[in-house]
Amino acid sequence: AIVPVPGGKVRTAHPSYFAMGLMQVECPAGAGAGQRIKIVANGAEYEVEVPAGVVAGQTFQIEGADRDRGHTMSVDKIAPVPAKRPAPPDRIQLSVDPASPWMPSDEILEEFFFDDELTRQFFSDKERCEATGLAVLFPPAAPCTMITCSLADVNAADFAYSRWVAVSKENIYIVRRKRKADWRFDCCDINESRKTIPINNVQDIMINEPAAYAAWCCFVPNVLTSVAIETAGTGGAMGGGDPRVDPSFGMLQGLLDPQRFRNVVLNLKKGIYIEPGGG
After folding, report:
1. Which of 13, 151, 188, 190 could form a disulfide with 17 if both were Cys (CB 3.0 to 4.6 A apart)?
2. Residue 133: CB partners within 8 Å, gap ≥ 6?
3. How far, CA to CA in Å, does 41 sit from each of 77, 151, 224?
4. pLDDT for 43-72, tens place per residue?
5. Same domain for 74 and 122
6. Which domain of life is it from (predicted)?
7. Range of the structural domain that residue 158 is part of
8. What is the spatial distance between Cα 131 and Cα 133, in angstroms, rounded to a whole number?
9. Does residue 113 form part of some domain?
10. Residue 85 covered by a domain
11. Are residues 73 and 113 in the same domain?
């Protein structure tokens, strides 16, 4: 059960706040089981969680009789709750600034999130595998590779959680926060970078699904989808270089919804923007 809070905020209330009464809510497009959606009933905004087993287009019941008003609320509007970037696990100690980099002047329409934990695990495993392989092929390097392996997880976490991507009506913004790298000395730091790509310059968005393996002896499978932003005169960003280091690369690895990103950008080129769940 839910209850409106002064100031337009929404909080969850104990079910006893409501008297008996049910109302039907249809799960909107873009939402599903476990996600929270906003509803507007009798001019007030509420937040509810979609029950297990419910998909977009299906209806479910919630308690809808306000104890103070004594009547059943009618639903005037429903919409998915804007997503928030998941926080890293408590055991992960990041060197990057976790605050959103967007400013009011950016006029952000939509932000796109990464699968940060999958990215962290992939690059951590890849770094350890490559370092182990080097130690096997060249034993004198073993002391250095042991240090590399011990720092692989925290370095991968800093990379994963340093990335931000969003779009406005006119631009794609790619931000990478300053972070520690390699042996984590100050001289190894990778500076913050901010790349702006005018949407009118975008020729295509190429999505590469993961396949094959990323490290020697097939120990680390590729699990991250890569998204290349192709602009006039660049021919894409799939060839060569390391997108973890070079801020000039318009390549995004591990986006949670790469197809949504592609559709939004290509629609904005036509002057169209459809909100999430807007059909």
Report:
1. 13
2. 215, 216, 217
3. 7, 51, 41
4. 666 778 888 777 777 777 776 544 444 333
5. no
6. Eukaryota
7. 104-269
8. 5
9. yes
10. no
11. no
Q: Of 80, 95, 130, which residue is a domain's last?
A: 80
pLDDT of residue 83: 59
How many domains is the chain partitioned into structurally?
2
My answer on whether 131 and 27 are in the same domain is no
Give the CA distances from residue 61 to residues 3, 47, 64, 70, in Å, rounded to whole numbers and listed in that order.
16, 13, 9, 18
Residue 119 within any structural domain of the chain: yes
**Do residues 250 and 150 share a domain?**
yes
Report whether 116 contacts 88 (CB < 8 A): yes
State pLDDT tens for residues 187-235: 999 999 999 999 999 999 999 999 888 876 668 999 999 999 998 765 5
Nearest to 203 by CA among 238, 230, 168, 235: 230
Residue 91, in any domain of the structure: no
Does one domain contain both 246 and 167? yes
* Domain boundary residue, one of 48, 80, 112: 80
Residues 6+ apart with CB under 8 A from 140: none
Q: What's this model's pTM, rounded to 2 decimal places?
A: 0.67
> CA–CA separation, 132 vs 149, rounded Å?
8
Residue type, 53: G
Instruction: Report the chain's C-alpha Rg in angstroms.
Output: 23
Q: What pLDDT digit, counting tens, does each position of 86-131 carry?
A: 778 887 889 999 888 999 899 999 999 999 999 999 999 999 999 9
Contact criterion met (CB below 8 Å) for 192 and 176: yes
φ/ψ of 130, rounded to 5, equals -65, -40
